[in-house]
Inverse folding.
């Protein structure tokens, strides 16, 4: 999941070198934290959060195969 979020985020931003993704696992729950440059924050979130919601939907669909709950936090 970490690689998926990283690929999507790097495709969206102007400064892909500043994208970092960390993954924290607690049992069946996984939290993925996405860190981007302050100038790229709007591009990752999108208008009314549409892009952030789309990223979360893609990750949720991919995680359903592994029977795990994945949460994406944009920091």
């Amino acid at each position: 999941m970490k690689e998926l979020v990283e690929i999507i985020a790097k495709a969206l931003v102007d400064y892909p070198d500043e994208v970092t993704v960390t993954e924290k696992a607690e049992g069946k729950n996984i939290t993925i934290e996405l860190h981007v440059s302050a100038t790229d924050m709007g591009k990752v979130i999108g208008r009314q959060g549409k892009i952030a919601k789309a990223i979360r939907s893609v990750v949720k669909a991919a995680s359903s195969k592994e029977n795990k709950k994945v949460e994406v936090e944009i920091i």
In short: The chain is about 40% helix and 25% strand. The chain has one domain: 2-74. The chain has a mean pLDDT of 93.
